[in-house]
Amino acid sequence: MSGTSSFTCQQERLKKLKSEHGKVQLGNITVDMVKMPSAIPVLGGMRGMTGLLWETSLLDPEEGIRFRGLSIPECQKLLPAAKHAGEPLPEGLLWLLLTGKVPTKGQVDALSKELQSRAAVPDHVFKAIDALPVSAHPMTQLATGVLALQVQSEFQKAYDKGIPKSKYWEPTYEDSLSLIAQVPVVGAYVYRRIYKNGQTIPKDDSLDYGANFSHMLGFDSPEMHELMRLYVTIHSDHEGGNVSAHTGHLVASALSDPYLSFAAALNGLAGPLHGLANQEVLLWIKSVVDECGENMTKEQLKDYVWKTLKSGKVVPGFGHGVLRKTDPRYMCQREFALKHLPDDPLFRLVSKLYEVVPPILTELGKVKNPWPNVDAHSGVLLNHYGLTEARYYTVLFGVSRSIGICSQLIWDRALGLALERPKSVTMEWLENYCKKSA
Ligand SMILES: CC(C)(COP(=O)(O)OP(=O)(O)OC[C@H]1O[C@@H](n2cnc3c(N)ncnc32)[C@H](O)[C@@H]1OP(=O)(O)O)[C@@H](O)C(=O)NCCC(=O)NCCS
């Protein structure tokens, strides 16, 4: 997958863009974007400010994510699968994100082998995780493992030896591929350590990336392998502004290596408004069942949703910072459920929530997107196949995100992107500025 000529071409494209259109305005920044009116004034979180270059994917508020121009249904159709009409292989998506091209099955198989050859994890990584109490959150254990992998960074070694800027992408590529290969091993170790008395399962080199991850976790049914391929593919990337992707990109802009950058990204993913929402959704759904039973009426469900909102909590799995329609990642998981587990009681509950929650959130009057997101669905699928430990779910998200974040990190270095350093101001500065502009 040699990329030097493709990199040169993209570098030239970026240079031309800058020299010919460097002064074209991308939008206006208003005080509202920095500080929005609300019961308790909160920072607006830079919504709607265009400020990042992210080549691997683009999120349309109405249509959802496109990976290098391909929607999720297009990826399902075009990317190679393990079996006829099966779910896309995550290695195929990695190829697509890195090169912008749809790979052949042969290319995907070669990439699978390449990842397998890099998957061995040094013993000190497991020792670092073992130093934590077993009760530590699975995301804390995963991030610790990733940080411990950092000692092998090729980028750091090359930088220490004075590698020229034009070659930064090469050791970044080496680290990224190794990290993507190793992170499922670390993730599976965390799962087996916490929930299976530390009895680990060795990797199986006859399996592809998604199936092997499922195997190391202890789930070997062909349907679970398919689910894992789909899961990893759709969770891999969601453009650059979300907390984990942006954190990885920001930290890497200081020329921190991919391990340091990705460990930081994982810490952002571990927040309940971001990746932890998948854990929250299943726990919340189970609490609904505990209170109302499996065959609850829509009225009971509505009451429970209102009760959650009135206690000051959000309804997990609904809403999004950018999307304004049902998340296509939700829809493809729904299609998977309709095909493989239409009678699962929790899936039926998720379907009922799809009818009940959006009108309630709309009635609140402040929620910009009342529709379900990716996290509203993933837990019930995993739960169906026996992966019932909700606290672990964000680790699956984290493993998947290595593919998107690391692909972009390679492009960051190839394009020579700058150190990120936006301007911040104080409240007093904003007040004075507004007075002067009035
Ligand atoms: C994803 C999320 C963090 C996006 O936040 P956002 O961009 O600030 O969303 P909005 O602009 O629509 O928020 C406006 C208001 O609606 C509220 N809101 C948004 N989604 C909500 C939900 N699912 N339940 C209850 N209230 C919600 C916000 O908390 C905010 O209230 P505030 O003004 O009192 O602070 C938010 O929708 C959320 O908390 N969802 C639940 C958690 C979740 O599923 N996260 C996974 C995302 S993939």
Automatic annotation (TrEMBL):
One of its GO terms (biological process) is tricarboxylic acid cycle. It comes from the Eukaryota. The active site is at H274, H320, D375. GO terms for cellular component: mitochondrial matrix. Signal peptide: none annotated. Keywords: Transferase. Pfam families: Citrate_synt. One of its GO terms (molecular function) is acyltransferase activity, acyl groups converted into alkyl on transfer. PROSITE patterns: CITRATE_SYNTHASE. InterPro entries: Citrate_synth-like_lrg_a-sub, Citrate_synth-like_sm_a-sub, Citrate_synthase, Citrate_synthase_AS, Citrate_synthase_euk, Citrate_synthase_sf. PANTHER family: CITRATE SYNTHASE, CITRATE SYNTHASE, MITOCHONDRIAL. Belongs to the citrate synthase family. This is Citrate synthase. It comes from Actinidia rufa.
